[in-house]
Amino acid sequence: MKPTPTRSAKIEKLRSHTFDLVVIGGGITGAGVALDAASRGLDVMLIERNDFASGTSSKSTKLIHGGLRYLKNLEIGLVREVGQERAVVHEIAPHLVRPEKMLLPLVEGGSLGKLSTSMALWVYDFLADVEGDDKRVMLTKEETIAHEPLVRKDILKGGGFYAEYRTDDARLTIENIKTAEKHGATALNYVEATDFQYTEDKRIAAVICHDRFSGETITVNTRHVISSTGPWVDELRTKDKSMTDRHVFLSKGVHIVVARERLPLQHAVYFDVEDGRMLFAIPRLRCTYIGTTDTPYKGDPNAIPTYVEDVNYLLKGTNAIFPTVNLTLADVESSWAGVRPLIYEEGKSAGEMSRKDEIFESDSGLLSIAGGKLTGYRKMAERVVDRLGKQLEEAGGKLKKTNTKNIDLTGGPFADFAEVLAYEKEIAAQLEAASLAPDRAAYLVSNYGKQTPEIIAAALKRSEGTDVARLACAEAAWCIEQELTLYPIDWVERRSGRLYFDMPSIHPVLEEVLAVFAEAYQYTPDDLAAEREKVLAAIQWVSEFSTAPTEQ
Q: In CATH, what number does 5-56+170-247+357-406 get?
C-alpha cells in the first residue's frame, strides 16, 4: 500500500518541522485541544496512534447531555457546566448535535418520585439556563402513555419530559479536527507516540513517533506536549516518569442496537432498571440503540468485548419497561463497548466516581488531561490550553483567550436546527432528481452537513453500480481525500457509522467501497483480501457475543 499525497506531505511536515504544541490523542478531547490551541495562534500537530475517535470517542452514549444523574452525587458545578455546554455545542454544529426530547417514566418502586423528579428537572433546567419550549414538563400517566405508547402501564405513575441533544461522537471528533486544520493545525492518524526526548534541564523537546502505516520512526520537535489519550493517559505519564498515585480507572459501557421497527420509540427514554441503575433507549434514523452498563474493566482498552451477559442485562431492562416488544438476542444487529477513563476515587463504585476532568502537569512540562464527559470536551480543552498558557508566560510568551464557542464546525454554518431540517429537504430533492436514494438525505446531512453536495457531485460522475453503491463509493472517496480515512474499516465504523447504525447497508456496497480504497492506496491482491477480512471481522465482533470468562 502507498500513502496518498496528502498523507505524505503531512508526514514530511512531521519530520521536518518544530511545533509549538504536539497533541497526543485524536479523540474528542484531543480534537478540542487542537482546535482551541490552533485558533489561539499556536502551531499545532495532532497525532493519534489508531484512527481518529477510535477509542472512547466513538463508543459513548452519543448524547450531548447534562448528566441528570450527577445531581444525585451533588456534582452541581459539573451539571451546570455541561448543561450550559449543550447549547454551545449545538450552536456550532446543529447538523451534528440535534435536539432530542427525553422522556423519564416514573414507575412504582423507581429511583425517583414525581416531586423529586420535578425538583431535579427544575434544578437541571435552572443550572443549564434552559428557556422556552425546552423547559421540563411533568406529565400525568395518560400524557406519558400518549408520548410513548410502548411504556409499561401497570406500574406507571407519570413522567418527566425534558430536552437533551443527540450526536455522533466520532463525527463530532472528525469535524473538530478538520476545523482545527482550517485554523492551521496538522493532524495525522496511525502515528503513535512511543517516547520523549528531553533537554539538559529535563524538559520535553521532542516526541518519538512510529508511523504505523509506513513503519518509519520519526522524531517530532516541539516546544510543548499535551496528552489527551483517555484510557492510555497513564501509559504516557509512565513513559515520562511522572506517574503519581492519582490514576485513571476504566469503567466499561456497552450499548446494543436493534432495528427501529423492533423498538419503535417516539422519543429517547431514560428509565429505571431493577438494580437501581438507569438506561437510555434512543431512536436514531432506522434503528434504536440501548445503553449502558457501568462496570470496572481491567482488560485491553484496544479490544473491549461485549459479552452475552452484557446484552442480556440491557435486553432484560428494556423488556421490563417496554413489555410488549419482547426483544431477544436475535434482534441485536450491532453493539459497541467502550471504557470511560475516570479519575480513581477510593471506596467508590464505577457509577459513583465523578465525571470531572483533571489535569496533571509533570516537571518535564507534559500536560495530561483525563476524565470528563463528551459534552464538556470544549471546556476541557480550554482549561488545559489555559494551563499551557502559564508555561508560555514563564517563557516570556502570551496566549490569546479562547473563542471556540463562536467557531462553527466544518459542515456548517447553520443558523439553527430549523435550517438543518430545511436543508435535508433540499438534499432529498437533489438525490431524487439524480436517482441517488433520496432516503439517504437525513443520514448524509447529519454526517456531513453542507459538505454533502460535494459527495453528490462525485456520485454523479460514477456511471457503474446501483444508486446506493455509487453514493457510498463517492462518500468513501470523499472521506479518503478530506478526512484522512486510511482503511476501509475507518469508513465503515467511524466516518459513516454503518457498523453500528446501519449494518444491513454494508454488504451491498462493500466490494465497491473496497475497490475505492484499493485505487486510492494502490492495494495488492493480498492487501485487498486483508482489508476485506478486517471489515468482516469487525462485523462479527459487534454482532456475535461470547460468554464472559468466569473471572469477569
A: 3.50.50.60
DSSP 3-state assignment of 305?
A: coil
SS3 369: strand
Every domain of the chain and the residues it spans? 5-56+170-247+357-406, 97-166+248-343, 417-543
Q: How far apart are CA 344 and CA 354, in angstroms?
A: 9
Nearest CA to 545 out of 317, 312, 315 is that of: 312
The grid coordinates listed for 334 are 450491532
pLDDT of residue 353: 64
- The DSSP bridge partners found for residue 103 are 161, 269
Q: Which helix (H) or strand (E) holds 179?
A: helix 169-182
Average pLDDT, the chain: 94
- Whether the ω angle into residue 413 lies within 30 degrees of 0, i.e. cis, is yes
**Is-above-0.90 flag for pTM?**
yes
Cα–chain center distance at 141: 35
Set of cell numbers at residue 404: 471556540
Q: Could you write out the DSSP letters of every residue in 41-67?
A: T--EEEEESSSTT-SGGGSS--EE---
The x, y and z cell numbers of residue 302, run together, are 484496544
